């Protein structure tokens, strides 16, 4: 049984930083493509950052240069470092995992396993 648990969300002022973590059980982050998505009320789920099993990364244009996705295989944990946060970054952030064979996709339909989300609020 696969379970993804996000943590690290919270409230921060514009220009601040947060680091989100995702600790899966039932899968190894090193073997899967992993990604962060976000969703605000009334909006579609948006791909923010992804990393594939070869450590190739991809980012949405809205966060490129501000957010960094990484993983610690020894801790089996995925991270999203978010710097220079803006009010438009406010959303529920979700961790996702998919067996995509070397693809760092930002498309939600490519991922089979999802966490419950962690709220990020920037004011």
How much strand content do the residues show?
over 45%
Helix proportion range = under 10%
Helix count, DSSP H or I runs of 4 or more residues: 0
Radius of gyration: 13 Å
The gist of it:
This protein is mainly beta. It contains no helices and 11 strands. The mean pLDDT is 96.
Structure description:
The protein is mostly beta strands and 123 residues long. It has strands spanning 3-7, 10-12, 18-25, 33-39, 46-51, 57-59, 67-72, 77-82, 91-98, 113-114, 118-122. Strands 2, 4, 5, 6, 9, 10 and 11 form a seven-stranded mixed beta sheet that branches. The chain has a four-stranded antiparallel beta sheet with strand order 1-3-8-7, with no helix packed on it. It contains no helices and eleven strands. It is globular. Strand 4 (33-39) and strand 5 (46-51) form a beta hairpin.
List the helices and strands and how they pair.
Layout: E1 3-7, E2 10-12, E3 18-25, E4 33-39, E5 46-51, E6 57-59, E7 67-72, E8 77-82, E9 91-98, E10 113-114, E11 118-122
Parallel strand pairs: 2-11
Antiparallel strand pairs: 1-3, 3-8, 4-5, 4-9, 5-6, 7-8, 9-10, 9-11
């Amino acid at each position: 049984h696969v379970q993804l648990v996000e943590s690290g969300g919270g409230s921060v002022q514009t220009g601040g930083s947060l680091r989100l973590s995702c600790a899966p059980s039932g899968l190894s982050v090193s073997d899967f493509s992993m990604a962060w998505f976000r969703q605000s009320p009334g909006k579609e789920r948006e791909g923010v950052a992804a990393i594939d099993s070869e450590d190739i990364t991809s980012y949405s244009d809205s966060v490129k240069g501000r957010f960094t996705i990484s993983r610690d295989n020894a801790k089996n944990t995925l991270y999203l470092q978010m710097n220079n946060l803006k009010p438009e970054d406010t959303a529920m952030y979700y961790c996702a995992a998919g067996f995509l064979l070397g693809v760092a996709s930002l498309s939600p339909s490519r991922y089979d396993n999802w966490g419950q989300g962690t709220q990020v609020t920037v004011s």
